[in-house]
Amino acid sequence: MKLKVCGMKFIENIQQVAELKPDYLGFIFYDKSPRNFEGIIPKLPRGIKKVGVFVNEYVEIVVSLVEEYQLEAVQLHGDEPVAYIKELKQHLPKVEIIKVFGIKGEFNFELLKPYEEVVDYFLFDTKGKERGGNGITFNWQVLKDYNSTKGYFLSGGIGLEEVGELQSFLKRKESQYCYAIDVNSKFETKPGVKSVEKIKQFKAHCQKLTAKS
């Protein structure tokens, strides 16, 4: 089970969290977000992938920022159509593409089919007021209807309080394609600043859960 810590913003905090060696660190390039990133990404330990999070951004800007920050993955958090992703892949053939879908109540997983050939992973977040970082979980039982073999990131209001629910979820069939857990606002002391101790605890729990599942 991989771990992604999203919404990183400040150099010192980035370095502290990076020392815990999560698999992914996410940087949000969306000026309407309180976690919008405009700084410098310090050198990270080997094995950590830098993810750029974008919302309906121009392809040219995404490509430019991927090159500037040497991002290894792009997370699309808007309403990007398949044609947009195909164009993006032409420019960034070696960059992982993660397409986000918001869930509130029921979800029609048939909507994913056109995207299967153009993305590397899906990410399921809670559909809310903001494009992310709402701090609310959705009903993971919805994923029992997941009909793809593509790995997905589980996101949306996951914190230390959800460890028990995660343990139960990982024992169920619908978790078999859960590739990574994505965390953000539940680990913050303020937008963009993560509690290193809480992430350390969560990572330890995740390792135990993965071993048991």
Account of the protein in words:
It is a single chain. This protein has 213 residues and is of the alpha/beta class. 25% of the residues lie in helices and 22% in strands. It contains five helices and ten strands, in the order βαββαβαβββαβββα. The strands form two sheets. It has an eight-stranded parallel barrel with strand order 1-2-3-4-5-6-7-8. A two-stranded antiparallel sheet has the order 9-10. Helix 2 links the parallel strand 3 and strand 4. The termini are close together.
Compact summary:
The protein has 213 residues and is α/β, with parallel strands linked by helices. Helix content is 25%, strand content 22%.
What labels would you give this structure?
single chain, 213 residues, alpha/beta, eight-stranded parallel beta barrel, two-stranded antiparallel ribbon, 5 helices, 10 strands, 25% helix, globular
Determine the fraction of residues in helical runs and give it as a percent range: 10-25%
Strand order in the largest sheet: 1-2-3-4-5-6-7-8
Which shape, going by the Cα principal axes?
globular
Average pLDDT, all residues: 93
What's the β-strand tally? 10
Class derived from helix and strand content: alpha/beta
For this entry, what is the oligomeric state of its chains? single chain
Number of helices: 5
**C-alpha-based Rg, rounded:** 16 Å
Assess the beta-strand content as a share of residues.
15-25%
Q: Alpha-carbon distance between the termini?
A: 10 Å
| Main beta-sheet strand count, sense and barrel state | 8 strands, parallel, barrel
Low-pLDDT segments, ≥5 res: none
Q: How do the helices and strands follow one another from N- to C-terminus? A: EHEEHEHEEEHEEEH
